[in-house]
Amino acid sequence: MSEKPSTSRERIIPIEIEGEGDNLVEDEKQKKISTTCLPEPAFSDPPKEVMVPEEALKRTLPMYNVKEKIIIIVDTAEDENFTPFRLNTQQKKPLDMLKHAVEMFLNSKQLINKKHEYALAVLNENNVMWQVNFTNNINEVINALQNVNACETEDIFDLSSLFDVILQNVKVPEACRVEGALLPPPYVVRTILLYGRSYTLPKLDESEKVRELLDSPYFTLDVLMTHEPVDDDNNCNKIFNVLQNLDQKGFAYFFSVARDTKTLHDSVGKLLGHPLQRPIQQLADYSIAVP
Hints:
Blueprint: E1 15-17, E2 32-34, H1 54-57, E3 67-75, E4 85-87, E5 90-92, H2 94-112, E6 117-123, E7 128-135, H3 138-146, E8 156-158, H4 160-169, E9 177-178, E10 181-182, E11 187-195, E12 201-203, H5 208-215, E13 219-226, H6 236-244, E14 254-257, H7 261-270
Helix pairs in contact: 2-3, 2-7
């Protein structure tokens, strides 16, 4: 098992880790659900019963398709001697595949609801830069992202700059009740962090404002981490552990993708669901029922 994270709280929500897709034989393309903070990547049959935190089952938020304000955070750091993705007969750099994944997400999400708005920010060596303000013109976001260049990595990345940028550029609605019932908010805020470093450990010294943001029922932080194949020489498990513990409500989605194109595409598809309408991640069922 991996080491305990350095964050102040432990995430106890069971997380589903994706397999390596095309890099595994068919019998190994399975999933394992664990109740630990960070399960080791494994490919055995999932247990028949899934343990779900009691507070997550008591979720009473209004299940409306209200407008989403989605902040897409793309990591531009490029690990030294990285393993490329394979797309058809081509090899793609990790940043190029993240750009491709974001474009897929934006085009698909706009088909669902054209009222959603998107903003773009990028992770540089040691800070976050806001690139595009909220807009429902996805081409503006896509074009800006195509002009982003890769940067080098450092040993530690301070996530405080990420939350500083979020707090400066968006206000999360407060919960409003009438006769005890929660009213639908005018919009919800969702940050999708695409973290692409296999050696750089993220850290966060939580301020009161950051904790209030993370605790807000109308703010969601989803994470899609792309990384090198896990081994003793990198920090993939430690990094994913820290990122998971950012969510204490149990409603965020977390995906770990090790240079496998199919798994990356599948994970992006699973991020399309509205945070007020989608199930808790470990209870999500993507199988198609055959009559």
